[in-house]
Amino acid sequence: MNDSVLQVNTVPMRAWLAVTALGISAFTIVTSELAPVGMLSALAKDLHQTEAGAGLAVTAYGWVAALAALLAGAIPTRFSRKALLIGLMLILALSCLAATQSHTMQIFMTARMSGAVAHGAFWALIGTVAIQLVPVDRLGLATAVIFSGVSAASVLGVPLSSLIADMAGWRQAFTAITVLSLATAVALLWTLPTLSAPQRLELRVYVGIFKNPRLLSLFGATACIISAHFAAFTYIEPLLTQTHGVPAATISALLLISGLAGLLGNIIAGKLIDRHIKILVMTSLLLSAAALGMLGVKSGSSLPIWSTGALLAIWGAGMAIVFVGLQTWLLRSAGNAAQPASAVYVAIFNTAIGTGALVGGMVSTKVGLQTMALLAAVVMVCSLALIWMLKSPARLR
Question: What CATH superfamily is the domain 204-397?
Answer without folding.
Answer: MFS general substrate transporter like domains (1.20.1250.20)
